């Protein structure tokens, strides 16, 4: 099979070594920064929106359909809006990451807030606890496993969002490197960038999983 269709592992390794400085020092930091910034914004917005939907039935009825609808619209269809609002900037790539990663964080966190033990909630209300105390003491801790589930999903797809954002309007990043390699039929270089993206996504997933284990271990000790 021709190497421009499916290169040998040795060719991919050679391409990676040849372009190691450009990949690791120029393009990787940009894509990683876009990904992390998008994830941070998604966590802040996702948790805030989930809490608002949980606390207010009106907000839930208004916002939840919008969140679902946002996932049915192809990102490419929104690219003119992103370019109009943010231009060819770092914020434009972050906005694409947020659009893709916000949904799992918000929905999973909202589901976790709603799934608190009913008997415990009734006991807290009977004890005179106000709404914020119930949220802080019962519902928020109960939602954490769901939150981490959503965050792990978001971490894996955040890399995709960063690449799409670079494709829509970028000058550098692993997505741009791969696109240029593809247009030049330099498939080994394309595979090198794809593998690097996969490693980055896997490391982000592992980092969130580690944070989840640490939190759950701390929570277990706190309840002893």
Structural features, described:
It is built from nine helices and no strands. The radius of gyration is 21 Å and the shape is elongated. It has one domain (27-222): MetI-like (MetI-like fold, Orthogonal Bundle). The protein is mainly α and 224 residues long. Its main location: membrane. InterPro entries: MetI-like, MetI-like_sf.
Strand content: under 5%
Question: What is the CATH architecture descriptor?
Answer: Orthogonal Bundle
- Reading the helices and strands in chain order gives HHHHHHHHH
> Percent helix among the residues?
over 70%
Query: What composes the largest sheet?
Result: none
Radius of gyration: 21 Å
Secondary-structure class = mainly alpha
The CATH topology turns out to be: MetI-like fold
Instruction: Report the end-to-end length measured between terminal Cα atoms.
Output: 61 Å
Q: Pick out the low-confidence regions.
A: none
Shape: elongated
Number of helices: 9
Average predicted local confidence, pLDDT: 88
Subcellular location: Cell membrane
Protein name: ABC transporter, permease
Organism: Stigmatella aurantiaca (strain DW4/3-1)
Membrane topology: Multi-pass membrane protein
